[in-house]
Amino acid sequence: MKRSNAVLCWKFCHVFHKLLRDGHPNVIKDSMRNKADLADMSRMWGHLSEGYGKLCSIYLKLLITKMEFHIKNPRFPGNLQMSNRQLDEAGENDVNNFFQLTVEMFDYLECELNLFLGVFNSLDMSRSVSVTAAGQCRLAPLIQVILDCSHLYDYTVKLLFKLHSCESHTSAGLTAQASIYL
User: Fold this and answer.
1) Which residue range or ranges hold the ENTH domain (predicted)?
2) Is the dihedral of CA 25, 160, 150, 134 positive or negative?
3) Half-sphere exposure of 81 toward its Cβ, with a 13 Å CA cutoff?
4) Residue 60, Cβ density class (10 Å: 0-12 exposed, 13-18 middle, ≥19 buried)
C-alpha cells in the first residue's frame, strides 16, 4: 500500500520516525532488516519531481541514515538524549572517534535539513497553508526533525570544542617536542 500512495507513504514515514525516536530500543535494530525495502521505495518515489513522492524519497533516505547512525553508534538512543558524560563515553575520549562521530552527525544533519528544505519548498507560500489539512500533513514530521536537529546541533558544537581542545593539546605537545630537538 505504501508503494502505491505517496500520502500514505508520507504518513508511514512520520509514524516510523516517531517509532525510531521514541519506541523500544530494539526498534532500530529490528528495522534494519527492512533497510533494502526502504531504499527501494526511496528510489521509486525519487522518480517523481514534485508533491509527496519527492518528499517521501527524501524522508526515506533520512530514516535510513538515522538507522545507520544508531547502528554504528549504539550508545545514542533513538531520541538522541544524552548527558555530557555519555557523549564523552560515546567518543571513548579518543580524538579520532570524536572526529568520526562529528562527521557522521553532520551527514545525519544534512539529511534532516534536506527534508526540512524539501517540505518548505513544496508549500505554496502565497497563502497560509499551515492551517489547511494538507499543510498540516506536510509540516507534522518537522516536529521530529526539529527534535533531532536540536540534539545533533548541540552535540556537534560540543564535539567541535573537544576537537579544538584536543588539537591545541596535540599541537602544544608537538611544539614542546620540537623545541627539545632545537
Assistant:
1) 1-77
2) negative
3) 5
4) buried
The tens digit of pLDDT for each residue in 96-146 reads 999 999 999 999 999 999 999 999 888 877 666 777 888 888 899 999 999
Is there a contact between 57 and 111 (Cβ–Cβ < 8 Å)? Answer: no
Task: Give start and end residues of each alpha helix (H) in the chain.
Answer: 6-22, 26-31, 35-46, 51-72, 84-90, 95-122, 133-139, 142-181
Cβ proximity of 84 and 158 under 8 Å: yes
C-beta of residue 163 within 8 angstroms of C-beta of residue 99: yes
Q: 0.70 exceeded by the pTM?
A: yes
What burial letters (b/e) apply to 69-90, b meaning 16+ CB within 10 Å? bbeebeebebebebeeeebeeb
Distance, in Å, from the CA atom of 27 to the CA atom of 69, rounded to the nearest integer, reads 14
Cell numbers describing residue 24: 523500544
Residue 67 burial (CB count, 10 A): 21
